[in-house]
Structure formats: C-alpha cells, structure tokens
C-alpha cells in the first residue's frame, strides 16, 4: 500500500481533471468578500467561506508547531465533535501569538458563521494566515459574515482561493472526477502556500471537498497517507508554521459506492486524494516567494525509506545548493556534500548524481559530461536532480525551489513595514 | 565542569592576549608560499606549513560528514601513530570526491613534507579547502614543498593564516598567555571559515598550537569540550563539510607545570583552550560570506540543555529569521515560530523574546516596546536575541549571522565559473 503511494511515482488512478476547485464536488458552495483585514484602504478578497449543505465526515491535519495560532486551537476543539459544515478563513492576519484575545476572536468568527448559516458553532472550522503577533481586526470581520454567507455559490471556489492568498502570486485550485464502481466521485481543493518552501515556511492552508461516501476512520487513513506523500514532501522535516492546516470534508453525495476499508474503492480513493494533494503541493512550490526554479529531488536506492528522505531533505534545505540552482550552476559537489551530512547511510564511492538525465557524478567522482550540457539542464525553470545511493531499494522524492536574491529582499522587512503602516493609520 | 564551560558565559580564566597566532607558543614555526593551486596565473599564498621542532601530543577533530575529503582520510590514519610534527594545508582545491587519485595526492603532500623536514610521513597532517570534485594540481604543489619548508619562521603565522583563506575576507588569528602554577603556557591558533555559518557551510579549518605539557587523554578531553562549546555553536547541528578539521598540537615547551587530570591546571587549560577556540569561532561568523550582522542567540531557562540547543539552532538556521535581520526588522513573530518548530519543550504563553536588552514579546504576546527602539537594536552590526523559555534553567548560546542578497549572488555560480576557467586554460 505504502509502496503504491511512493511519491517517486505519480499515483496510479484513472481520473478526469475538472473545473470548480472546492465546489467541484456535489453539495458544496463557496464565496469570499473583501474586509480590509490587513489594510482597510486596500480592497482585495480576504475572507472566504466553504459550506456543505448536508452532513459531512471531516478530517484535518494541523501544524505540529508548538506555537499554535488561536484559530488552530479552536478548530482542533471543534473537529472532535464531527459533522463539520463550514470553513471560514481569512488572510492578512495569522491570529497567532495573540493570547486569550485571539481565542475569543477565532470563536467570534465561528459564532458569526454559525448564526449566518443556522448551524452550531462547533460545526465551523476557522483558519487565518498572515502576520504573527498582532490582534485580529475583528470589528472589520464578524459584522460582515452575513454578507459573506450571502455570497456563497456553486461557482465561488475561485473567489475563495483568492481570498486566502498572501504572498502567493496566483490562486491554487485542482479538481478531478474519478470513476468508481458503477458511478464516480469528485475531489477538489484549493490551497495557499508562499514563504520559501522550506521548514520555516509561511502558512500553508489546503481545503479539500469530496462527495465520496466514506467512514471517518477510512477518511483519516487516506488523509494521513496523502498528506505524508504530498505536503510533507514539500514542508521538509515536518516543520510547520503556526497556522498550517489541511481540512478534507466528505459529504457522501456522489453516486459512487461507499468507500469501505480494504476495498478496491478505498485504494482508488486514497490514490485520488493523493493526486489532488500532490498537484496542489507542486503548485505551492512553483509559486514559492520569488522562486525561479522548480526542482524535483529524487533519491534512489537508499537502504531505507528514512535514509532516502534524510538525503533528499538535506539537499532541498541546503542554502548553498539552492543558490547554485539559482545561478544555473550544476554544482554536484554541493549536492554530495549535503547528502554526506544528511545522516543517510551511504558509501561515497557508490553515489551517482544526475541533473535531468545527464550524469554529473559517477561513483563519487566527476564525469566527462560536458559542463555546458549540465548547465543547459539547470538553466531550465523545471528540472530534476537524481541522487542514486546504490545501497538498497528505497526511493523518496522532494519538491523544492531555488533561493533568490529577491527572496531575501522580499523577506527583509515584513514586520517593521506592517507595524509602521498600522501605526500610521492609528490602528492597534 | 560542563556548567563551567556553558557557552552562555565567557570562560573564566586569567590570560593576556598576545601576538603570534600559531607561532605564539614556544617551539613552533610556520610559513606559506604561493603555488597557483586554484589558478596558476594568480599569485596568492595558498600552501602553508606549521612545524613543531620537538615531539608533540596532538589531537584532532574531523568532519562527521560521510563524504570525507581525501586529506581527511589520510590525516585520520596518520594521527593514530601520534607525535605529529607538521601540518601542511592548501586552499584552492578541497581534494574531496577525488577518489584514489585524491588519496595519492594527499599522501604525496605528506611525503614531500616529511622529506623536506626529515621526519616520517605519518607525522604529517594534511588539510585542503576549496572546490569539491576536482583533481588536485599536485604537480604545482609537491615540487614546491622544499621552498615552503625554507620559508618557515617563528613569525610565519600570519602568512600561514592567509594561505588557508578561501572566501574569507581577512585572516583569523588569536593567541593568549595563561599564568599556570609558578609559570605560564601559551595557546594560539589560526582558522578559516567562510560559507554561510550554517549546517552546509564551506570548510572550517582551525590549527592550534600550545607549549603546555599535557598527556594525550587529557588533551583529548579538553579539545572535545572546547570544540563542543565553540565551533559546534556555530556549525549548527554538527553538520560539517567534507573537509572540516581542528588540530591541536602541544609540545610541552612551556615552563608551566604538567597539566594533570583533575588538577586545577587542567581546569585552567580547558578554559584557555575554550577561550581561544571561541574567539576564532566568533571571527569565523563575523567574516561569513557577505555577512552584514553578527547575532548572538541566547536561549535561557530551557528544560534541558538539549532543548536550549534545539531552540537556539532552529532560530539560527531559519532563512526567514536571517532575512529579517538583514532588513533590520525586529520580527519576533518569526523567532517564536522557529522556536515553536524546533522540537524544544515549551509553553507558548511563557516565552519572552528580547532584542538586545529590549523586550519585544512577553508571555508569547507583543509588548509596548516602541518598534523604533527595537529597530535601533537590529540595525546594529552586532546584537543579541534572547529567548527566555521560562521552563527550567538550561542555557545555550549560538553565534550566527544574517542572510543577504549578496550571499545568494556570491554563491550562485562557483562551479560553472571554476570549470569554465579551468577548461579555458586547458587544465584538467
């Protein structure tokens, strides 16, 4: 089962790509409005709502960061009761490191949503993304939730996907229809990334809806498996931000048979969910802050899966390696260096390194492949680096990016800028 | 004992700073010549030699990287026999990932040194730093070792320190004289750093000489202890390059009494060695590639030493935190975020964060300290960030730097540039 979900291979499942993102599956509506959360003078969508009109089975994966945003704490409480009907999310403020006031604000967002939709407050999940350590401008949010509910529609996914963007340059959305039994089911989602695709990245949010009919425990297994093979292949080391959240709602409205544990349908569902998450994860990497290269790091033939993962992540995290990619420099020396300190078991004299299909290092030594040919590969906006340890049969793939001067510049003054802007406006 | 060497405090030992680096202690000579190792057309010191004219007790700490340079392998073999008399080191080529030819070249450097000095080959340590994966231009090195031996002098330390520089902008040297018993001993050293001060940094080399009289096992304990509290506080995570090496030679020529295990003198020696390594380590951070800020990260009151270390290193490694320092942005949100994913046990609501002496975050929440005051601290070229976890009594300090656009630019094309340069010259 795990082998089938090896991220080094695309999940094998028949599907059709469809439009509609988080409203592609039957029975969901979404919408967004502009509240001026970050800056009251700037009109941009920054508050979104996703609703299931019928009961759901919902599972979520939250940040493992010990500093958890107020919204994460509230959502974790709410999901215990099950039958989640709505997700409300804002950009412009992370509601993290905001103390008891933050908890109160997150609850106020749930309460307003529940009132607008005629559901219970504990049926609402709440997410926030943006700057850390500043109180939510809740007076600009809760009074608008009725209007937000009125904006819900079966074509509202794109608005919703835009409302969670922070430094993302484009909305991220993906949906598929999957034949299953005599019928089919749909899975679709929206996501936001930004920040360097790296341990200390900014918030990652992903909301997925499906009309498949599935029991709680089977959904949970599928979600853990898919997250592990998608978002955890980009958010290296399992380090997550204060706000990272993946929520998957299923409402059973599809005509496909129920997804039962151990069945062929369960296999299909897992692969389909993996596919959707993998596509969204790749979009996040491609759209990382000031990223100019998308790089697939494939470690092959490690002794164990853990070794393969360590090696791939060490390369993906290395600032020196990322700089060399940015400069289109096929620097295999830095790659082998990172593999060497990764903790993976290896023998230097067995290591082969490829840029694209070209071998740059054979048995730990340089090859005769012309530098100009290797440079051609690394000059491309998308390429792969394959590290063959020739030690065993375990593989692991990580998706990552280069490191640009623009990234440094972009991240050099977020805080002062935000605080000064707020002070100038006389805001708290 | 360990508590006494807490890196959060300077080692408590009486000493006088003296000139002379690696030739400050009695009985050592050093020298350097220019061999054009990286580029035959460029005249710069790139081959150095340090010699003790009398028998030594020597200890060394080598990289833990599983990809080890040929010179490291050879030095590791040689040190087993004891009585090291000479260290030969070059810049311009790392002799890493060079296979059997690399081993042969490293041995040839030892052999030439032994012949020039009339000692055994196994009494020579050999070190290299520079680009990885290219064969050593050994024909430009070994024939010159006689000339190098002729250049040895009791004032040759500065030349030696210059010859191991790569992207370092200045030589690094430090020496002290320490009263001990009725007499005194001297300890001095030279070092080279460069690369980002970070897990995946470039090679760090440090050569230390002392005239203290000390037994092998006591020297070994002192070296491990001092490295752990100095270089391991800058080379985060214990990740080291393919070539990292610290060598400490002692020749017993001082008039101080013998350093005996458990004695007061042993305590004094350990602290003195720690002091020398700490000063050299700080010089390495300050002179990191394109570094504009030197930052001391102090974690206070963690539950355990391991927790304190995890928290400090997570902050020091965070690209987002480093970018904010570069922009003089007192972004405590990013700091607490990194502490949160560090794995250290903590309670968010107990965390206080200071920039310099100013509190930016109290109990996990923002404070009223004016942003303009915090900015003043972060604008300085040297400042401290203190993270008080208020959980226990363990402290740890890490020395690190910012991340600049210039760093990215500087590291973007080393490889292609070097290869093209070599090809143009018709070199291998």
Automatic annotation (TrEMBL), chains A, B:
Keyword Cytoplasm found: yes
InterPro entries: Arg_biosynth_ArgJ (IPR002813), ArgJ-like_dom_sf (IPR016117), ArgJ_beta_C (IPR042195)
Pathway given in the UniProt record: Amino-acid biosynthesis; L-arginine biosynthesis; N(2)-acetyl-L-ornithine from L-glutamate: step 1/4; Amino-acid biosynthesis; L-arginine biosynthesis; L-ornithine and N-acetyl-L-glutamate from L-glutamate and N(2)-acetyl-L-ornithine (cyclic): step 1/1
Biological process per Gene Ontology, one example term: L-arginine biosynthetic process
Localization in the cell: Cytoplasm
EC number, UniProt record: 2.3.1.35, 2.3.1.1
GO molecular function: L-glutamate N-acetyltransferase activity; L-glutamate N-acetyltransferase activity, acting on acetyl-L-ornithine as donor
Keyword terms, alphabetized: Acyltransferase, Amino-acid biosynthesis, Arginine biosynthesis, Autocatalytic cleavage, Cytoplasm, Multifunctional enzyme, Transferase
Site positions per UniProt: Involved in the stabilization of negative charge on the oxyanion by the formation of the oxyanion hole: 129-130
Name of the top EC class for this enzyme: transferase
Positions of substrate binding: 166, 192, 203, 289, 411
Active site, UniProt feature: 203 (nucleophile)
Swiss-Prot/TrEMBL site (Cleavage) positions: 202-203
Transmembrane domains' residue ranges: none
Transferase listed as a keyword: yes
Catalytic activity: N(2)-acetyl-L-ornithine + L-glutamate = N-acetyl-L-glutamate + L-ornithine; L-glutamate + acetyl-CoA = N-acetyl-L-glutamate + CoA + H(+)
Assigned GO CC terms: cytoplasm
Biological role stated in the UniProt entry: Catalyzes two activities which are involved in the cyclic version of arginine biosynthesis: the synthesis of N-acetylglutamate from glutamate and acetyl-CoA as the acetyl donor, and of ornithine by transacetylation between N(2)-acetylornithine and glutamate.
Record's subunit section: Heterotetramer of two alpha and two beta chains.
Family that this chain belongs to: Belongs to the ArgJ family.
Name the record gives this protein: Arginine biosynthesis bifunctional protein ArgJ
């Amino acid at each position: 089962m795990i082998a089938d979900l090896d991220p080094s291979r695309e999940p094998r499942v028949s599907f059709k790509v469809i439009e509609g993102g988080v409203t592609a599956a039957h029975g969901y509506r979404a919408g967004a409005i502009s509240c001026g959360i970050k800056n009251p003078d700037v009109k941009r969508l920054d508050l979104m709502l996703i609703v299931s009109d019928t009961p759901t089975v919902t599972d979520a994966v939250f940040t493992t960061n010990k500093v958890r945003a107020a919204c994460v704490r509230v959502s974790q409480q709410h999901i215990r009761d099950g039958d989640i009907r709505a997700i409300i999310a804002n950009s412009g403020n992370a509601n993290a490191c905001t103390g008891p006031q933050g908890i109160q604000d997150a609850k106020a967002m749930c309460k307003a949503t529940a009132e607008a939709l005629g559901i219970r407050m504990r049926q609402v999940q709440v997410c926030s993304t943006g700057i850390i350590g500043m109180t939510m401008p809740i007076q600009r949010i809760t009074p608008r939730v009725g209007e937000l509910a009125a904006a819900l529609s079966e074509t509202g996914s794109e608005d919703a996907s835009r409302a969670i963007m922070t430094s993302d340059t484009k909305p991220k959305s993906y949906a598929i229809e999957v034949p299953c039994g005599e019928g089919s089911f749909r899975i679709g989602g929206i996501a936001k990334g930004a920040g360097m695709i790296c341990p200390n990245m900014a918030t990652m949010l992903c909301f997925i809806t499906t009309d498949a009919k599935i029991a709680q425990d089977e959904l949970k297994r599928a979600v853990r498996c898919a997250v592990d093979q998608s978002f955890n292949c980009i958010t290296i080391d399992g380090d997550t931000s204060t706000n990272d959240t993946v929520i998957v709602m299923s409402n059973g409205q599809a005509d496909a048979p129920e997804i039962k544990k151990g069945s062929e349908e369960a296999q299909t569902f897992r692969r389909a969910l993996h596919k959707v998450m993998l596509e969204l994860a790749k979009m996040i990497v491609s759209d990382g802050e000031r990223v100019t290269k998308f790089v697939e790091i494939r470690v092959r033939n490690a002794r164990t899966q853990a070794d393969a993962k360590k090696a791939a992540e060490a390369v993906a995290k290395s600032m020196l390696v990322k700089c060399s990619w940015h400069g289109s420099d096929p620097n295999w020396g830095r790659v082998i260096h990172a593999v060497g300190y990764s903790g993976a078991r290896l023998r230097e004299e067995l290591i082969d390194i490829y840029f694209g299909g070209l071998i740059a290092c054979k048995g730990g030594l340089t090859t005769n492949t012309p530098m100009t040919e290797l440079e051609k590969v690394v000059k491309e906006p998308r390429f792969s680096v394959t590290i063959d340890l020739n030690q065993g049969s375990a593989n692991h793939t990580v998706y990552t990016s280069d490191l640009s001067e623009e990234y440094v510049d972009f991240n050099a003054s977020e805080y002062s800028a935000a605080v000064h802007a707020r002070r100038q406006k006389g805001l708290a």
